[in-house]
Amino acid sequence: MARNDYPEKYQTLIDDEIWAFIDRSDSFYPPDTAEKSVEQQRAVYNDLCRSFHAGRPQDVTVTDNNIDVLEPARKIPTRQYFPDGVGFGEDDQQPEAIVIYYHGGGFVVGGLDSHDDVCAEICARTKYPVVSVDYRLAPEFNYPADFEDALTAFGVISEIGKDIRIIVCGDSAGGNLAAAVCHATKNLERKPDGQVLIYPGLGSNLDQGTFIEHAEAPMITTKDTKFYKAIRTGGNNDFFKEPTCAPLNDTDFSGLPPTVMISAECDPLSGDCKDYQEALRAAGVPVSLVNEKGLVHGYLRARHMSSRARDSFTRIVEAVSALGKGEWPYQD
What we know:
eight-stranded mixed beta sheet; alpha/beta; 8 strands
């Protein structure tokens, strides 16, 4: 779509740098992609990710490993990022924290490569190891497969780093999974020490609020969101009663870890963060929310071509760093 084809309000809300990002994204991933086959969507998304890949910082070591699961028998692929000199060897400095990252992609697309550079940069800038989790995708594997992989990965990584703080982080669908892990473990002794959620979908009503206000937003529409919701669950709406599918549908938000959320103003999902913030506040959970002005869903890929996206990514890194140290530098 051309810039003028989008609703008029976005002409003033969005600056030229982000429009350049949208135009470049649309050239790979046009707005009607959700109507294509899953195989076609994955091919388009993979091309998009390769185009925006910014490379890895030189002071990060990367290895791929599998988590072996016995029942049902399967492997969960992971990618591990270690800053130079930090690790679990005799000559290594033990990390202050470990970051578990769950990638976005509507529970349908994405994997270890799609957010590779994002994870590498978080690792380099925080000096924390980052573990990216390649959870099972729909429609081959419907919910709760994605959540089960996310939770299993958290459990295994927690055992490896028994006395180390664990921060869960994710964008979009990955933000949902990070929150779901927190809800599933909130009453356990071992649970995440913090969560950083980047424009997550948390399960609110798709027929109200920002899903109406930003129904035709660039990068993702409410129609797209409904498509991914249906394909994730195989059309079974009863799943959304579960907080591990829709964290906003939990009945008790106490016991959750300190939470930092970063949403995008021009994104139908942005209202989920506001609703989640209110629920956490009411439960006495430390929570901070920044709704980034003029940004759109998926803007992490614009961090090297947009000052707004770059500043937001710095806020994300700072949040991960602070929570990893057990600090809370926020006023709200």
